[in-house]
Amino acid sequence: MNVDVPLDMLKDDIPLFLDFMDFFLQYRPHDYQLKFLKECLTKTRIAGKWCRQSGKSYTVAAYTLFRAITGKTTIILVSPTQNQSDELLSKVKDFIYNNPDIQALVRKDTQKEIEFSNKSRIISLPSGADGRTIRGYTCDILIIEEAGVMDDDIVNQVLIPMLASKKSRGQIIKIGTPLLRNHFYRSCFEDSHYTSINVIWKDCVKVGQYSQEFIDEQKGELTDLQFRTEYEAEFIDASMMFFPSSILDKAKATYTLFPEI
Length: 261
What we know:
The protein is of the alpha/beta class. It has helices at residues 7-12, 14-25, 31-42, 56-69, 82-96, 100-103, 152-159, 183-189, 201-207, 212-221, 224-230, 245-251, and strands spanning 45-50, 74-79, 106-109, 113-116, 121-126, 141-144, 171-176, 195-199. The chain is 42% helix and 16% strand.
């Protein structure tokens, strides 16, 4: 099977792209997921500010596999922990092993990496406390999962340099549910290089991802601030915090961890 499809052709032909996703991945995105995928096809900087359980990881997994099998591409998935990164990689594997033709393209499959016959690679990594263990990697596409809790220093000093050698700048996709006003906030609201895709609970109810009954239950169970953060994808405003984020940033410190004995 030859699936080395020119990406430029699929950028200009969305119905063909959808047919590709449907036929090879059996994936039919909701409207808001399709909007996100279209931006991923055409932009190099994307921030996906989505509410909980809205299918962001599933959508990113589909896009990741699509890019890997349609051209030689190195894609790095980074989350705060290895388990979180592996969970995103496992969603990619679900797509792979549901299609024998795509499975036949796999040349290497470990817990942390998949390599294909076209030399594409998908690698899952943890940022850890300081990003020290993942320095030195290079990629074409960098996907930052749980970007809302990823430390600014790790993103700016460890992750972004992974794209430094790419003449076309490579692609950065940040996804997550908002928390503090960190680099993710700036990408969503202040950095003109980024295209921001916002998904809230109403979008999910509209397409059946959530039920209205579930949302009503969550409104009763959570505080107003918790609900607005988790389901309306709002960043915590500094005026609502006991300690301003500027003070919290100054209070942070990095400590060397002792090895386990």
